[in-house]
Amino acid sequence: MATEVQITGVNFAPQVLKYMVFKGPRRIDVEVAIAKENRQKASVAGLMQFRLDALKSGYRPAIELAWGRWYDASNWVAYWDGKVKIGEDFEMPENPKMENGVLVLTEKQFDDLQGQTFSRKELEKACMNGRMTKNQVLKNPVWQAVVGNKELLQQYADAQFEKYDFKEAMSIGLARELNIPTQRALVLDDGVNLASVIDRFRYLDGSYARLVGVRQGLEARVVA
User: Fold this and answer.
1) What does the buried/exposed string (b/e) look like for 13-23 if buried means 16 or more CB atoms within 10 Å of the residue's CB?
2) Among residues 45, 44, 51, which one has the least CA distance to residue 19?
3) Measured CA distances, 48 to 102, 117, 155, 183, 189 (Å)
4) Cα–Cα dist 219/157, whole Å
5) What is the pTM of this model?
6) CB count in 10 Å sphere of residue 106
7) CA–CA distance, 166 with 173 (Å, rounded to integer)
8) Can you tell me the distance from the alpha carbon of 77 to that of 146, in angstroms, rounded to the nearest whole number?
9) Higher confidence at residue 213 or residue 2?
């Protein structure tokens, strides 16, 4: 049975809002609500732009909403046989096979996933599982793969490190590989206390989900 999804408009644009925050007990219900509003689920890059637009607006409630909360993203990460795949457009299956809060895949499903592939050993050497300097963030292969836009990554890192006066931030954690192929959705933690960490501990069968639905082609600006 579907559960109620709460929707919060972000006070940027008049008439049609570019960003809306959707939250509810189950991710699948939140995804359905976003689709019904003819919006796209925000990726990590989309969440970064959401936060940058909030800063640009100078509107304090929007800045707090954007930077002061974690958000589920449409990006995913999958693990199997010493390989790590990273891609976009994750959708929660209606009848998922789950184990320990993660989506269980067949080997064929893992092989068919379209995303960038890394060796686990490669990523373990790339400043993983710990906060990084801004220079390390910009050179990090996972941040580059997840964001997919060097200019946006630069702008966001500048904002994160300068706004909160951090010397190290924006870590990415690798989850433990199981003895079966698995897939997780990524989460961008808040930019204040957790300093924009990509969360490795998100469980898809958890009791709460929060995503941003984006209406493309709109300018984000504050309503006077």
Assistant:
1) beeebbbbbbb
2) 51
3) 25, 23, 9, 23, 11
4) 22
5) 0.89
6) 11
7) 19
8) 10
9) 213
Write the DSSP assignment of 67-121 as a string of letters. Answer: HSS-EEEEEEEEEETTEEEEES-----SS--EETTEEE--HHHHHH--SEEEEHH
With a CB cutoff of 8 Å and minimum separation 6, the contacts of 18 are 10, 12, 53, 214, 215, 218, 219, 220
CB atoms within 10 A of CB 222: 16
**What does the alpha-carbon distance between residue 142 and residue 162 come to, in Å, rounded to a whole number?**
22
Kindly state the tokens that stand for 56. 């640009």
CA distance 55 to 64: 9
Is the pLDDT at 223 greater than 50? The verdict is no
pLDDT 10s digits, 91-140: 988 888 998 889 999 999 999 999 999 999 888 877 666 889 999 999 99
Terminal-residue alpha carbon distance, the chain: 40
pLDDT greater than 90 at residue 10: no
Sign of CA pseudo-dihedral 194, 199, 202, 208:
positive
Contact 78, 183 (CB under 8 A): yes
Domain-by-domain residue ranges, the chain?
6-214
Res 3: pLDDT:
54
Mean pLDDT of 166-190: 92
Amino acid at 39: R
pLDDT over 50 at 15, yes or no: no
pLDDT > 70: what percent of the chain?
A: 87
DSSP string, 180-199: S-EEEEEEE--SSSS-SPEE
Q: Which amino acid type is present at position 90?
A: F
